[in-house]
Structures are given as C-alpha cells and as structure tokens.
User: Fold this.
Amino acid sequence: MQQSNFDDYESPAVTVDVLVFTIKDNKLCIFLVKRGFEPYKGEWAVPGVFLKVGESLEAAAKRGLTEKTGVKDLYLEQLYTFGDLDRDPRARVVTVAYFALTTNNQLPEIRNESVQEIALFPVNELPQLAFDHKKIVQYAIDRLRNKIEYTNIVYGLLSEQFTLTDLQRVYEIVLNKQLDKRNFRKRILSLDILEPVDKKAGGAHRPAMLYQFKKREPIILD
Amino acid sequence: MQQSNFDDYESPAVTVDVLVFTIKDNKLCIFLVKRGFEPYKGEWAVPGVFLKVGESLEAAAKRGLTEKTGVKDLYLEQLYTFGDLDRDPRARVVTVAYFALTTNNQLPEIRNESVQEIALFPVNELPQLAFDHKKIVQYAIDRLRNKIEYTNIVYGLLSEQFTLTDLQRVYEIVLNKQLDKRNFRKRILSLDILEPVDKKAGGAHRPAMLYQFKKREPIILD
DNA sequence: TGAATAGTGTCTTTCAGACAATATGCC
DNA sequence: GGCATATTGTCTGAAAGACACTATTCA
Assistant:
C-alpha cells in the first residue's frame, strides 16, 4: 500500500457477514435472515453489517451477531474475504466472512427493520440464498469440518459440562458420519483437553461421567 | 448484508497486499519495496495496491505483483484480511493479504513512483517494516510452513524439472530444519505427485534423476 | 430382571522416524 | 582409483482403525 492520495480511488463497500452455527434437533444448523430490503428482498441470506470506519472487523462481526440474531458467540474466527465483481447487483461490495459457533439455538426477536424474519436452517436443508451466500456457507462448513479434527473448537457447540456420548454425537453431526465409540474415547481422552467433573448426569439409565474442557479457548492440537 | 442505502456509511479504504516468496542463495526470501510516499516514507513494506471498484481481489493481487515487483506468480492464495483500526495513520484501511510463490528471483526495474527501491530479503533478516507488515509477514510464513506439509504448493518454488535433492533442499529451507534423505524420498514418492522425466541432470558427479510434478496446480494431499 | 446406556481392551495395519551401506558417474 | 553425489531398506514405536463384551442404573 503506497499511494498517499486517498481521493484518487473510489472505495468498494465493505461488509462483514457472520455465519453462526449451532446444533438443534441433532442437526448442524445455521442462522439465516430473511431480507427486508432490496436486492433479494424476501430471500434468505447470511446476516451481515456494513463495516464502520471506526470499527474493527471483529467488532463488526460481533455487532452483526447481536444486531441481527441476538446471539452471543462462544467462538468466532475469520473465514475468508469474498470480493467477486458481481456479488452485489447494486455496487461493488467486498465482504469479510466470519464464522461463529454457539450453543444458543433460541431465535431472538427481530430487532432490525432490515430483517423480516430470523430462522435456523439445517445445513443439509438450506433454502435458496441471496448473493453468493451459498458458496460462503459451503466454505464455512468445510472449514468447520476440517478444523474440529485438529483443534478443540468444538467446545463452541457444547454446554459447559457434557458426557463423552454428547461429545461424540456433536462430532458425528458435524462430520456427518458415524464414529466408533471406543476409538473416539481413546483418542479424545489422550488429547488431555478434557477433565472429569465427577458429577453424574441424571437420566433414565446408567448415568455417565460428566466432563468439561480444561480450557474453553482455541487450541491447536498436536 | 442488508442495508440498502450505501450513502449511510462511509467506507474504509481497501488495499490488497501481496507477499511474494522465492528462494535465493538457499534462503527463503520475500520481495519488499521501499516506500516513496508518506507515511513510512523510506521504510520497507509489503507491496500493495488500492483495490479498484471494477477489479476482483485476485486481479488486484496480480496487478500489485506486476506493478510493484514485475513478478509473474506461479502460485497465489488469499492469506487473511487485516483490519485493525490503527494500521494506517492516515485513515481506516482494510487490507486483504495474498501470498505468492515464484521461482523468479530477479529484481525488476522500478516502474512506479510510489516505490523507491525493490529488494529481496531473507525472512530471517527482515528490516523494520511499515504498518503492521511484520505481523502479516509472520502470518504468511506460518501459513507456508504449514501448507507445504499437506499440499503440493511447493511446486511454486521450483523450476519445472528438478532432482529429489533439489526438492528436499527447498523443504529444508522453508521449514528451517534438516530432513532425513531416505525418509523424505520415501514419503514424497509415495504421494504419487511426481513423475520421473528420465533425463539426467548434468553435473560434476553422479547425475540424478530429474522429476516434475504431475500437476502444477494446488492439490490437497491425503 | 429386563431395558437402556456407559464403559472398556486387543489385534492389525499404517505411518513416521532413526539409522548406514552401496551404486554411479566424472575427473 | 578417488571423489562427490545418488540411491536404497530395515527396524522400531506410535497412532488409527476394526471389532464385542461387561457394567451400571433405573423402572
């Protein structure tokens, strides 16, 4: 970045989109909003906000979360920046996409006139999406599937205490495949990122040991 | 992204910075430019350009490569988007960083008045850098070191034909550690991404088999 | 005591890593 | 023949994957 005269250039607009994932009814779901304005009015889209000049990217992502979905995130990470020319029919818009994981799968009240409706969609049953949002969602799912293999970010999809069966179920839902119970437990416990809480879960049958993450912050494993 | 009135928002400026890596004198090096304008006039920086409204991010990255360093890239990938508030003392600037790999380590003529000088620096002997570019360079090096472990992008640092010793040397330079010759060859050949060219390299002693990549395009291994 | 879930161990295969001797071409 | 580089295989330990039975609690 060298040029010193800013006025020589017309700037593209910058937005920050947030892909919020959660688990509901044993499905990996994403928060989407139904647009209240043109373009794509009435269509479903990933929630997003315009970046303000006095606001960091991450702050904008958190604002988008709160303003549009009411969700407080547990895990937030920058995904990718999408800047194709024809993404937005109105003008040139570059969007910095973030993805977030949360255990809060309650739908908030709509707090913004730009949004007609908010809903959770299973990622396998997505509606038609505005802009290039289908591509962005798929990119995020791929990232999530990769990243739970070598980090501990799955904590963002679990309440503080959980059984190993709960944990395995989350992995199976995200990866969309079944895992062997013994191998899963062997591997997870060998990572040394969990600690038993020594309480038992109440339930209809044999209670399971409860665990929690030693640290609920991102760790790269191995 | 919902708001439909663009004029409600003042846009941050958007730049695209390009981190071009190559190997010279058995060192991993990066192209840097000495700035011709304030701020940071006379300091070294990563080459970059303002994103034009009618230009895709990748096109801007390629333009930056050519305008500032004359390099034609072999491999180009988006790195990360940096948007801290205080990155640029003049105004709010969001930069989308790309990193590129090339075998061309010739210094081009300076073709742009915003650049006083162009030079290659070994990544272990970096000068003081303008803006937050030190952080960005480190981020790119980390990405490169990770990514040559599970992709074939090292092809961007090698001429079309090379010996296994050449290839091993590149890995050792990038990773900054020595590798066992037998294990390296075993692993690389088992990946099935190389093919022998059946010529021999001229040299002072026993000639080595020449290889080339079956495909010189990004592949994720395993 | 039956139903449902929790919890556990062995064997095999694969991959990474340590390690050194022989082969070839050129001078 | 001497030198410099190329090329090759075995052993060991660790991790991943296939696979099935026992233990515990509650109704």
Summary: Residues 180, 182-183, 186-187, 190, 200, 203-207 of chain B lie near DNA strand C (CB under 10 Å from a C1'). Strands of chain B lie at 13-24, 27-35, 44-45, 48-50, 75-82, 93-101, 115-122, 194-200, 209-213.
